[in-house]
Amino acid sequence: MTTNGSGFFGRLNWDAFPITGLIQNPNTNEIVANTAAAIVIVGVIVVVGSLTWFRLWGPLWRDWLTSADHKKIGIMYIVFAIVMLARGVLEGVVMRAQQAAGPGDGFLKAEHFAELFSTHGTIMIFFVAVPFVFGLANFLIPLMIGARDVAFPVMNQISLGLTVSAGMMLMVSLVVGEFSTGGWTAYPPYTGAAFNPGVGPDYWIWAIVVSGVGTTLTGINFAVTIYKLRAPGMKFMRLPMYCWTIICSSILIVFAMPPLGVAALMLAADRYLDFHFFTNDLGGNMMNYANMFWLFGHPEVYLLVLPAYGIYSEVFATFSAKRLYGYNSLVIATMSIAVLSFTVWLHHFFTMGQSALINAVFGIATMLIAIPTGVKVYDWMATLFRGRIRFSVPMLYGLSFLMLFVIGGLSGVILANPTVDYQVHNTLFLVAHFHNVLLPGVLFGLLAGYNYWFPKAFGFRLNEFWGRVSVALWTVGFMLTFLPLYFVGLMGMPRRSFSWEDPSFHPYMIVAVVGALIILAALLSVIVQLWVSIRDREKARVPVGDPWDAHTLEWSIPAPPPSYNFAIIPHVTDRDDFAAVKERGNAYPSPDAYEDISVPLNTGIGFSLCVLSGVWMFALVWWIWWLAALMTIFMLATFIAWTFKAETERVIPADDVRKQHEAWLDLVHNSTPVDRDHETAPENRGLARPDLEAVT
């Protein structure tokens, strides 16, 4: 093995493995690094061993890895996001522990701490929040608009494969080599070849490029699905609010992801081909990278937040027994946020030397975006006003969001002032603001949606007690971890610092690490909730499909839904069509006739491209050029071979559809409607008694 790129294995050598560092120089830093690598290796062994022992490889391949069903793809996205969330939370705990270790160097090296905050940010944004958002949207969008599937089912599968393979590169970086130390934004010169000649920035580059392709394809898929596949009568102003947020996010994806991909590829050209796009010499300009990255970066924030807003809209309406207040204004506010998000990117580098006029223009634009956000908050509060509120788990997440997100939003308005931002931009005040937006704004929303729609996906409700425990732990953990950072930020503590000397910071850092441990407990409580729910699932079955007395179309079909979603495509006449037909007493009609239904066939192309692209990225990171060329050929051949496939759909006979649907209708007619006050009781089989008394 050589390190000059000319050998058979490129620059791969034994020093790339963490165990080498532990053997040569055993210390706490190396123990932490090797423990992380060991967790990955042991995790893979346990998963592979369990699948083999229980003979699950066949069902996994047939029912999941080759499925083009949007519902199963959505569930796989969410499983992947939760796995990556575990790593992201653990890294956050280690970082907080390092900073709480007191003045001095703590127990980590500076380079290791830099790797941690780089991977933490990259994972939480690209491989937790994005896949979680996509998972829920994949599952819900066709069901909400009365469609059989997304517009491009196979492309949907490929998108998942590319996202997972890119995420796996971050796992591989724990075992072979190291990750970038340039932060999740990967600013040059910190990621340039001269400053950082190792493999770290290359792991980041190729993971971002490949996942970015998958993300862009998903955005196109969602947009076309909502544009073209809506049920008859479902006009745009009859779309559920969640669908509006997804279509705006899809537009953001289509326009915002290309600048990130271009910036990453230009950085790769600098590192691999000795170009000078972002160097200090030969015509390079590092500010070009900052502009391109944040042309993506700020729309990315709303790409994540808007779907969470849609979830809160559905949750607040359902659990307050009211129709959503101010629907038209919420639609306009959502579209306004999407447009304005492209006008504020420069506030991310107010400190980098622009003129006062430019800073003022972008500061005003940043303040303006608070107006449509405020409209949403007031509309949600009006929805709750005089509603018959149930403090179920999704609603508790929503109420926690309302209180905490406003704090984050107000701190964002403060940072919109360039003179204030100049003072606190490189302090922990900004870290507190960023997490104050993303945790209550995005993660709480995704967890609310997870609890809300879980019964629809799997046919049984999640455990209410452990759900409440999770809400409490997430809320308290967030407040203790990040609210103290506002204070130390104003006191001058720099962000990205692995050590500090001012003893006045210490009490705040102790509180923050306690909060981080509570967040870790919150994550564990989510796992416990799932385990308890699976154990007790027979007591929480909701096969009829409507356990919450909800308003939208996905609740009008069985739980879990059949592969074809709807036996008969619904005809929509109202914005909350399912709530309307329940009020009229004809929510579960028996159709006069049934038709054959076509659904996409299983295919292995998504899994194949997942594996091939993963090997391709690894080869590029380690300069194994023959392997990279071979994987390129294999990927092209796989795609071309798939295009010759003549049969892409299978037909479900009308008689089979009739039998399944009539069996479900019999279940509906033989079930007893349950009052919303008893929705957590075993008697709730998914047939809720309609209750919109609080509508004003």
**Which strand order spans the largest sheet, edge to edge or round the barrel?**
1-2
Cα end-to-end separation: 74 Å
SSE run: HHHHHHHHHHHHHHHHHHEHHEH
Helix content: 55-70%
List the total number of helices.
21
Largest sheet: 2 strands, antiparallel
Overall outline: globular
Would you identify the regions where 5 or more consecutive residues have pLDDT less than 50?
none
Q: Please state the oligomeric state of the protein chains shown.
A: single chain
Radius of gyration: 25 Å
Count of beta strands? 2
**Mean pLDDT value:** 93
Strand fraction band?
under 5%
- The chain-level structural class is mainly alpha
Question: How is this structure best described in words?
Answer:
The protein is mostly helical. The chain has 21 helices and two strands. A two-stranded antiparallel ribbon has the order 1-2. It has helices at 18-24, 28-53, 57-65, 70-100, 110-145, 153-175, 200-228, 241-273, 286-319, 327-340, 356-368, 370-384, 393-415, 418-424, 428-458, 464-490, 506-535, 577-584, 605-621, 625-643, 654-670, and strands spanning 597-600, 649-652. The chain is globular, with a radius of gyration of 25 Å. 65% of the residues lie in helices and 1% in strands. Helix 5 (110-145) packs antiparallel against helix 6 (153-175) and helix 7 packs antiparallel against helix 19 (605-621).
Summarize, please:
The protein is mainly α. It has helices spanning 18-24, 28-53, 57-65, 70-100, 110-145, 153-175, 200-228, 241-273, 286-319, 327-340, 356-368, 370-384, 393-415, 418-424, 428-458, 464-490, 506-535, 577-584, 605-621, 625-643, 654-670, and strands at residues 597-600, 649-652.
